[in-house]
Amino acid sequence: MSANLASTRPKTAAAQHPGENAAALRPHAEQAFADELAALAAQDDRPRPARWRLSPWAVATYLLGGTLPDGTVISPKYVGPRRIVEVAVTTLATDRALLLLGVPGTAKTWVSEHLAAAVSGDSTLLVQGTAGTPEEAIRYGWDYARLLAHGPSRDALVPSPVMRAMAEGMTARVEELTRIPADVQDSLITILSEKTLPVPELGEEVQAVRGFNLIATANDRDRGVNELSSALRRRFNTVVLPLPESAEAEVDIVTRRVEQLGRSLDLPAVPDGMAEIRRVVTVFRELRDGLTDDGRTKVKSPSGTLSTAEAISVVTNGLALAAHFGDGVLRPADVAAGILGAVVRDPAADRVVWQEYLETVVREREGWTDFYRACREVSA
Amino acid sequence: MTGTAGTGSRRTGPLLLGVRHHGPGSARAVRAALDAARPAAVLIEGPPEADALVPLAADPALRPPVALLAHAVDEPGRSAFWPFAGFSPEWVALRWALDHGVPVRFIDLPAAHTLAWETETGLPSAEPAEPAEPAEPAEPAEPGEPEEGEAAPAADERARLDPLGALAEAAGYDDPERWWEDVVEHRGPGERDPFAPFEALAEAMGALRERYGTGGHPRDLVREAQMRLRLRAARKEFGDAVAVVCGAWHVPALREKATVTADRALLKGLPKVKADLTWVPWTHRRLARSSGYGAGIDSPGWYGHLFHVPDRPVERWLTKVAGLLREEDRIVSSAHVIEAVRLAQTLAAMRGRPLPGLGETTDAVRAVMCDGSDVPLALVYDRLVVGDVLGEVPDSAPAVPLQRDLARQQRALRLKPEAPERELELDLRRDTDAGRSRLLHRLRLLGIGWGEPGASRGSTGTFRETWRLRWEPELSVRVAEAGVWGTTVAAAARARAESDAANAAALAEVTALAERCLLAGLPDALPVVMRALADRAALDTDVGHLAQALPALVRTLRYGDVRGTDTRALAGVAAGLAERVFVGLPPACAALDTDAAERMRGHVDAVHAAVGLLGEALAGAAAGAAEAGGVGVGGGPDDAAGPGRAATAAAGAGPGGAGGPGSPGGAAEKEGGGATSGAPDDPGMAAPSIDGADQDTAAVPVLGAGQGAGVPSVFGADQDTAVPSVLGAGEGAAAAPGPGVGAGAGSVGGPGGLRRRWRGVLRALALRDTVAGVIRGRAVRLLLDEGELAAGEAARLMGLVLSPGTPPGDAAAWIEGFVGGGGGLLLVHDERLLGLVDAWLTGVPAEAFTDVLPLLRRTFAAYDPGVRRTLGELVRRGPGKWTGSAAPGLTAPGFAAEPDAERADAVLPVLRLLLGPDGRQTTTHEKSLTGVGT
Q1: Chain B within 8 Å of A193 (Cβ-Cβ)?
Q2: pLDDT confidence of residue B714
Q3: Beta strands B66-72 and A213-218: pairing type?
Q4: Which residue from A130, B390, B589, B898 has the least number of CB within 10 angstroms?
Q5: What is the rounded distance in angstroms from the CA atom of residue A359 to the CA atom of residue B579?
Q6: Which of B149, B52, B114 is closest to B267 using CA atoms?
Q7: CA separation for the pair B656, A35 (Å, rounded)
Q8: Over 50: is that where the pLDDT of B130 sits?
Q9: Are residues A87 and A148 in the same domain?
């Protein structure tokens, strides 16, 4: 059964011809970091769970970075609390499914990809969750031409990535789990608790072999999502990926991403946006945390998520404004409208929150007069 | 059996059990070692005066956590604590000795010395004991306990050598607590040799002490000399079979061979006070580091669990957590517990720890039971990791210092506790009475209801208070209970107030608390209370709450004034609160039903009055700084009580100020007007400001700092700018150069800005159609009273509302808001308004008339009979004669048509006499009369 399934599985280009895929726009984690994975595997002398490419310790090292005994430097893939990675890896090692929660821009997908690459050596068994994700994407579908021609048979069955992972003892990934309709989500329950996937049409089932596990990611502050049923939820260990801990770290992330985006959008280079970027990040952080940076004053939090990703988009937008309509320098007025749009999601409640913040925090802050004025102008 | 039996490796002599204070592993090991060695006496690190209190520990009514409290007899505020939890090794040793009928001796330095040491040396937080500073006994520091330095709360303390830290670092741990847990706590007592852990630890400590000496605790030498002396005495009495339980750090010193003379010499001439000791109840929260008392552990609940469970600590702990979460209605099944145990154990293995510790179990609870969220986890931390355990002390324990302090104050103030109820009139201008009032207020804060404030009879002056006193027997119990808060009434009340502020649920509670703090003369508690207030205000989304809190706060400000308290922090918070009200009020006034609108009108009135008072309160403090700002910053006098005309000075001195030496940049940037001296290259220009009105106030902290005035909100005085035209003026100031405009903006200053923005809010309310009629009417009326609206403008607005397009119900509500609440005189004097009302009323269709009648009737019924009669007469006379504004015979009975200027002037000298000679105050009071009294 499993052999049969495996043979139907389309191999990734990299798996068949490593190196041939170098021109890909974005190589998979196991391709991009093949050297590090190989070095880790070579020197890993700790016990490995069944079908794991690396031991849990080596997986943690792969994500957090470090130097191996032979001097190979492993670059950090995730910069954040060590605890998070340890709990995530341990969860997978204890054969529990892992749910990574977090607002956009907290590297959920990135962590899940690298975990799968390190554990199973393959991060491509992926189900992308959308409002239209059908049950076939999680269980299996049919090749209708064959089905009609030859009737239900193993050959006519199109396995989902999850099914393949089960059969081969690999790590499957489900992105944006909460976007998937609730009834489709629930088809995961049997898979996670019974570790089996019945195929009633054939009177068979696919039993997961050891090594199978599942990593799901979800956005916990998004609206219009399908909350997980408690039955499904308790099949997961949940790890919340935090927002960047310090303002400095967040400014770095924003700056780096803004540069990348600016290049790909061919925006003219804007010389010195650092001050405004810092300001945007500060505003976002303060409103998000409900506390000013000096820890002295509490403020209300608006209903929006104010994620790092939104900060990046505000700054990019501001840069475009400055480049095309302004004098090329990122000024408070360029970001003010973007910030207003990000903060005020609910026209009544959020507007009060924003104005209160403006009046009680921004107005009194030294050096923020221009920004205050710009914000007053756009919110009037 | 002697201590030497059964252990070949151990050297002969007393059994030295070095422990980590409050370490459950140490406690188990101590118990095992004592069981094995069966010493003839147990010596414990602690003040020897406590020897007499040992029998009390056998009382079943004494339940840990408890603390030994030492305090100076003459000065209850000077005190020190030695806390014991059920899992403290010292407590275990004490109980073991009591259970086995073995004598106990405390062998540390007497509390008499440790308490006295502070006064002599003036070294506040040096070892061994850290009695509270005499003036501030509210936070009695932790004496004697955290001497390893690993846990002392003070920063300088932590900076000293941390012996455990050194050991942990050597072992590759970044957290000494975890190292200790792994190496000692989680290794139960050695199965074969109960003494082995102590041997190993003593060796390690010996190595450390060789290397680091006293490790920055010079006083340890003296304490250890005392311990050696006491140990010698005990050996003389009981032979070698004594056991010593002390901090591991001291073990090498006790092994040291020092001569009696050398030890005596060290102890010679120590300062001494008369000290008293007693047991007091303690709590787990205080054991926790975060509570400020800091016994050195942040997870007493977890430690207690480790100590008390018979086996499988992790499984039992996670089951306990699941139980707690279930009680709070989280769905946690046994399957969750199983998964959490698996995760915790695997995590421990992955982190290379012998057993899951608190960190692993917490991670497991978060990932499995709490969906990754920290919110339920906080509950687990609060209820279980720290825990709500409260110790108990039998009644037979000696009196707590708080009782003594109370008795002393009762004597000093000649206020006897008596059972029969009696009334007490206090005149706060007299020192004794003020003291009595403070004492009673403080006791009330502590929940000791000896006196209840009653309504003052006869006089309404703020300097009088009436109390009903009755001392009931259970109040003594309350006093004993309140002993946990501190050792003096003042300190305890302050600690209690701060705790209450932190725990208060509603905003109004905190404002009330602030008021009580002022009444009780506890200005030190104010910063904490204000902080809590500001936080609550920031998060409260109900404008009604804010609007209720503001008047109370402003009242508090006034009280503070009367009592000479420093209320600047209060003023800052009040101003912030006002800002929040301004922002939130207009949206909150939309779409209200009748009752809600009526309530909101009350809020609007209250805020209006409060803003007026607040303006005054701030102006008093600000005048001086405003003056300084205007006159040129360099040498401006820092005159907080400066004359009110200062504002004018500031205004007039616009250009002069500009020429002055550079004022601090922030001030120039924000002050927006008279004080724009900061930009030397731009003299005479008003600072860039989009909205002058807002800029004025903004300035404030900056200017204050620049002046060294220390006033948190330095507002220009406002009295002279009674009518700073309308809002537009402020905007006009934006970029316009020249002294004229700059002066306009500058002189309005803070309270002016505050009031001006309030007027802006009122204006917005008045013009917004979605706002309920009664509020709109009220807003127009308040604006009119403020002189913000020309009479014609008011008539126009009224005409709009009373025009046929408005539903009659709305219009009647508007009228109720506009002239309701006894505001009828306005109609008497402004006949155009009366005419409008009259014309509207006659135009109301018959079917609607019955609807509006009750409301109108209520509005007009509230007027004085005289006003009603006059109105009636005016209406009867008919509309035809209303063209003249002051025709003879139209005035109220008893008044001439024209004011008699000569007679009016005659009153002025008396008024001046009453209100004070200086112009500022005169204007102030005039303002308050017109602004508030309506």
Answers
A1: no
A2: 32
A3: unpaired
A4: B898
A5: 7
A6: B114
A7: 73
A8: no
A9: yes
B residues 324..343 contacting A (CB < 8 A): 331, 333, 335-336, 339, 342-343
If asked whether residues A317 and A218 sit together in one domain, one would say no
Same domain for A258 and A192: no
Of A237, A290, A349, the CB nearest to B368: A237
Global confidence as pTM: 0.64
Distance of CA B226 to the CA centre of its chain: 42
**Sheet bearing B275-281, strands edge to edge:** B75-84, B66-72, B275-281
Taking only residues 362 to 401 of chain B, the set having a beta carbon closer than 8 angstroms to any beta carbon of chain A reads 363-364, 366-368, 370-374
Read off the tokens for B248.
Answer: 């591991």
Tell me the C-alpha distance between B528 and B546, whole Å: 19
Residue B915, both tokens: 């209100």
Same domain, A224 and A271: no
Q: Which of A240, A266, A291 is the last residue of a domain?
A: A240
Say which amino acid occupies B810: D
Alpha-helical (H) ranges within A267-331 are 274-289, 308-324
Distance to chain A for B382, nearest Cα, Å: 21
The rounded distance, in Å, linking the Cα atoms of A278 and B40 is: 69
Phi and psi (nearest 5°) for B15? -85, 110
Residue-range definition of the domain harbouring residue A332: 247-379
Q: Which of residues 531-570 of B touch A (CB under 8 A)?
A: 534-535, 538-539, 541
Identify which of A356, A360, A366 has the shortest CB distance to residue B702. A366
- The 3-state secondary structure of B623-670 reads HHHHHHHHHCCCCCCCCCCCCCCHHHHHHHCHHHHHHCCCCCHHHHHH
Q: Could you say which residues from 654 to 683 on chain B have a Cβ atom under 8 Å away from some Cβ of chain A?
A: 666, 669-670
pLDDT, one tens digit per residue, over A250-268 is 888 788 777 767 776 666 6
Name residue, tokens 């009748």.
B594
A57-to-A76, A236, A374, B178, B538 alpha-carbon distances in Å? 14, 21, 51, 20, 45
Helix ranges (H only) for chain A are 2-8, 13-16, 29-32, 34-43, 56-64, 82-93, 108-120, 144-150, 161-168, 182-185, 187-193, 230-233, 247-264, 274-289, 308-324, 332-343, 349-357, 369-379
Residues 6+ apart with CB under 8 A from B311: none
- For the stretch A202-215, pLDDT in tens is 999 999 999 999 99
pLDDT confidence band for B757 (50 / 70 / 90): confident
This complex has an ipTM of 0.79
Structure token digits, residue B287: 């054991």
Output the CA–CA distances (angstroms, integers) from residue B628 to B619, B631, B707, B708, in the order listed. 14, 5, 8, 11
> Final residue of a domain: which of A240, A269, A302?
A240
A91: its two tokens: 């969860």
The residue of chain B nearest to residue A348, with distances taken between CA atoms, is B587
**Maximum mean pLDDT: which of A138-142, A351-355, B201-205, B699-703:** A138-142
With cut-offs at 50, 70 and 90, classify the pLDDT of residue A380: low
Nearest to B367 by CA among A157, A205, A251, A236: A236
pLDDT at position A119:
94
Domain identity same for A230 and A298:
no
Same domain for A101 and A216, yes or no, is yes
Q: What is the pLDDT of residue B872?
A: 83
User: pLDDT at residue B341 above 90?
Assistant: yes
A138 and A11 share one domain: yes
Chain A residue with the nearest C-alpha to that of B337: A234
Q: What is the tally of structural domains in chain A? A: 2
CA–CA distance, B577 with B508 (Å, rounded to integer)? 12
By the 10 Å C-beta count (0-12 exposed, 13-18 middle, 19+ buried), B157 is classed as: buried
For residue B297, what are its two tokens?
């552990």
Q: How confident is the model at residue B119 (pLDDT cuts 50, 70, 90)?
A: low
